[in-house]
Amino acid sequence: MLLHHVFGLFTHPDSEWAEIRREHEKPLRLYVAYVLALAAIGPICAYISTAHFGWTVGADRLIKLSPVSALQLSVLTYLAILVGVFALGYAVNWMAKTYGAQEEPDASNGVALAAYSCTPLFLAGFALLYPVPWFNALVFLAAAIYGAYLMYDGLPIVMDIPKERAIMYAGALLTVALVILVTTRVGSVILWSYGFGPEFVGD
Questions:
Q1: Taking every annotated instance into account, which residue ranges of this chain make up the domain Yip1 (predicted)?
Q2: In this structure, is residue 107 part of a structural domain?
């Protein structure tokens, strides 16, 4: 089971990346056994907290989302995460030749690198059970920083390139990740205009 890599990526990432390269899992199996499960953490926790716990604004006024609205947004977020990880994985593979790595027809190494590098962000989804904006922002910032480190650390191992090339490669991939993030935000605004926006409920 691929979920055993979660602990290793936090305790001994170098040897874990080497094992991931040896496994060379196909993208479909990686998605089914790893990404589908971990990517659901954030949306599920966000649904629970926004529909049932709520958060306070101003003078202790409790704000919630309606269950239908929270479910819609959680499902859309889940789909965006799945597409984002897949797109980042293919970007890793597409840029491979530029940085001296081997481009693969099925992008196995690229998707693996993207999926496992996103592990801290997947796990940060648990923080959404405590719907306090500043706390969530700090947790996700720390997760993003460690995820970027994991990508930089894993690039030379998984893609089999010299370590000195990993800095430029990782920088290019982080730029792609930011483009994907901005695209999903723009997509959210468009979907909101078609009736998928949040429906707030105050207590």
A1: 7-182
A2: yes
Contact 107, 90 (CB under 8 A): yes
Q: What is the pLDDT of residues 107-151, one digit of tens each?
A: 999 999 999 999 999 999 999 998 888 899 999 999 999 999 999
Average pLDDT of the chain is 89
- Whether 8 maps to a domain, the answer reads no
Structural domain harbouring 72: 14-202
Among the listed residues 157, 165, 185, the one whose alpha carbon sits nearest the alpha carbon of residue 98: 165
Specify the pLDDT at position 148: 94
Residue 9 lies in a domain: no
Q: Is 24 part of any domain? A: yes
| Distance set, CA 55 to CA 60, 94, 138, 196 (Å) | 9, 42, 17, 21
